[in-house]
Amino acid sequence: MHRFFIFILSLCAVVNYLHTNEVILSLVEYGIESDTIDWILLQAEQLTPDSIQICDGSEEEYQTLIKQMVQQQTLIPLNQTLRPGCYLARSHPKDVARVEEKTFICSDKKQDAGPTNNWADPIEMKQIMGEDFQGCMKGRTLYIVPFCMGPLKSKYARFGIQLTDSPYVVVSLKTMTRMGRKALEQMEGKSIVRCLHSMGCPLEPGAIDSAWPCNPEKLAIAHFPKTREVWSFGSNYGGNALLNKKCFALRIASTLGLDEGWLAEHMLILSVTNPEGKKRYFTAAFPSACGKTNLAMLESPLPGWKVEVVGDDIAWLHWSEDGSSLRAINPEAGFFGVVPGTSEKTNAIRTIATNTIFTNVALLPNGDVWWEGKTDTPPPMAIDWQNNPWDPSKTTPAAHPNSRFCVAAHECPNIDQTWQDTNGVEISAIIFGGRRASTIPLIREAFSWEHGVFLGASISSETTAAATGTVGKLRHDPFAMIPFCGYNMADYFSHWITFGLQGANPPKMYAVNWFRKNSNGEYLWPGFQYNIHVLKWIFERCEGSVKAKPTAIGLIPKKLDLDFASILGIKGSYEELFAVKKHEWEKEYSALSTYFSSFGNEFPDELWLQYQELVQANGQ
Ligand code: GTP
Ligand code: SPV
Ligand code: MN
């Protein structure tokens, strides 16, 4: 206790905040360990905020911050009759997506970050970033945001505290996590992931703040797996700034999973209920902006078949204690989803009707929002995401391609009633996918767990606007985890193989591709709600009620079992959707061989064996 008071005294000197003592005392009362409190105090000392606020997660606190951001013009209230509780934020034009080239894994040894991550020495990184953090919250409030990832009281839940100077981040964390008092109440004796975040824009006295402060020139997001810390500087956007999400729940959590025998995955979790009322749960890993949220929120056109959401982005997978079932929890409590493409014809539209913060969409004269794909005909006029007048003659999009909605899970009409189950849900099937214009068929089933791991490791996908950089470039993205694995990916592959062998009855595994195109560049498969036909087939395979057709690349559905006749707007035939073209697969296997070799001796033999068997079976 003695140390606390020295800190408090030194803090009172730099922080013009009468209630600092109260803040400390309330943390002590909640049983937060003294080393965590020391950390908060030390940070406060170097960040030099004008005030400190511990966030309790109350509605009142949320509304106060919203009001403050409306005044600051960070948020624009939308038409409250059309969209109650909804706001629009416009980001800085240079702060619109995750920045992978400025994302670092700071393990002690470079080898532990592996060939697919940017590595930096942890001591050097802390020195470099430490200088930027020095004094960076001048003129601002330091918010202390305690949060829980996973259902409160679940044995699978994990805890974090984010220190941030961004009120936009605080309200987003309230929506995306179990935040504030309810998290603090569960934290006693638990290990806590320390998340430090600043927009990187100190405010001089009397200076006018911008609506979206950020510091793109000095942007860096560093992960310290050994000490379970994340440091993020300079951005206010999505996964760069909401450190609970990709930074904690994937990069740091994946390293916890490696140590403790579980998996933190970039996966949606959904349930499918058949006409007899039987429910099964599946997970699916697709790279960013490749269809997770839309699949999770699917509204089924097939009579009697229903899909409900457990999670749309991240799944933590554990074997049950007796090893009899694979359990999945969604560590999040809300959705941060891609807006463009969402319409009455697709799946998330009802979830974002109320209490949603939209970032970087267009504003309509009636105070509603618009984005590409919302309606077949664009509005005659709008204000684009950069606050410029827009009309359909413009060549630039009205909404940014990576514009997002942030909304609580309970706003989703198709949320599964078990979504907060402390034991997670039992997974029957694991699906991998990517955005591929050619080569990869609509769906195939793995022959075995090892083959399934091979399918996951083999995913390539065209890059999207979810990360800065070129869009549409094919890249290897094993398990949709390339930007999110906190350690050496070769060890990750091995971890997947051994993980499957730990349970009595591993789920079936699948690879899907909604994005195959014909020679006119049109999607062969109508996707969205029609993906239910694929989910139905997977369900029936799990039941053992349909037979599959063996091919060299996996088991595929028989034509009649996909019920093509009832699918409207289909451009491709069964034969086109499942075509295995020799020249395409030669290219595919050659690219895979080069890629797998890049992991050197660390690459698991089991996957090389799979590779060789498949190449032979293909007659290549
Ligand atoms: P992140 O949140 O970035 O991880 O993306 P996500 O994987 O959740 O992707 P999301 O469901 O938001 O979809 C991304 C884009 O792909 C949107 O523009 C969708 O309209 C489009 N999309 C989603 N599902 C389908 C599909 O089945 N077919 C086609 N053609 N496009 C789809
Ligand atoms: C993704 O890029 O996969 C996202 C958006 O879900 S972000 O939260 O920015 O990572
Ligand atoms: Mn999503």
Give an overview of the whole structure.
The chain has 2 domains: about 1-55 and about 105-205 and about 220-260, Phosphoenolpyruvate Carboxykinase, domain 1 (3-Layer(aba) Sandwich); about 265-335 and about 415-580, Phosphoenolpyruvate Carboxykinase, domain 3 (Alpha-Beta Complex), CATH 3.90.228. About 30% of the residues lie in helices and about 20% in strands. The strands form 7 sheets. Strands 1, 4, 5, 6, 7, 8, 9, 10 and 11 form a 9-stranded mixed β-sheet that branches. It is globular, with a radius of gyration of 24 Å. Guanosine-5'-triphosphate binds near residues 286, 294, 341, 514 and 515. Manganese (II) ion binds near residues 293, 312, 313 and 338.
Query: For the CA atoms, what is the radius of gyration?
Result: 24 Å
Q: How many DSSP H or I helices?
A: 17
Which class best fits the helix and strand makeup? alpha/beta
- Ligand identities: guanosine-5'-triphosphate, sulfopyruvate, manganese (II) ion
Low-confidence stretches: 1-18
Number of strands: 31
Portion of residues within helices? 25-40%
* CATH topology title of the largest domain: Phosphoenolpyruvate Carboxykinase, domain 3
Give the biggest beta sheet.
9 strands, mixed
Work out the strand percent: 15-25%
CATH 2nd-level architecture of the largest domain: Alpha-Beta Complex
Using the coordinates above, name the CATH class of the largest domain.
Answer: Alpha Beta
Quote the average pLDDT. Answer: 94
Q: What best-fitting shape do the alpha-carbon axes yield?
A: globular
